[in-house]
Amino acid sequence: MSRVLIVEDSPTMVQLLVFIIKKLRDVEIDTANDGANGLKKLSEGRYDLVLTDINMPLIDGLKFVSLLRNDRSNGNRDVPVIIITTEGEESIMEEGMKLGANSYITKPVNSQRVIETVRKFINA
Ligand SMILES: [Mg+2]
Questions:
Q1: pTM over the 0.85 mark
Q2: Residue 105 belongs to a domain with what CATH number?
Q3: How far is the CA of 56 from the centre of ligand 1 (A)?
Q4: Cα-to-centroid distance, 53 and ligand 1 (Å)
Q5: Domains held by the chain: number
Q6: Can you state the angle between helices 90-99 and 61-69, rounded to 10 degrees?
Q7: What is the pLDDT of residues 93-106, one digit of tens each?
């Protein structure tokens, strides 16, 4: 069983990502509505993959990746992270990768691209 955490503030987007990722085998999905909530969940349970939005209240996606990668006390510090950026925001994508994200997908999300990218990191 692979545990995937989706960090995203838009309920519509969460719904869409859950719908897509649920098609994979042996995947358990958890969600957090912003970076602060995401970090809290990552400090508590075991996760195999994180997908995170960039624009979120309190702690945005870039700050979230940066804080996670630098938190030595977090057992999920090295968990693979896929950032979700908006098409045309290459500089944000590059910044995210520099901060420690492992891959990215762009909005509007393409179901096939989400599946392919997720499968690079978990057996599903
Ligand atoms: Mg957002």
A1: yes
A2: 3.40.50.2300
A3: 5
A4: 6
A5: 1
A6: 20
A7: 999 999 999 999 99
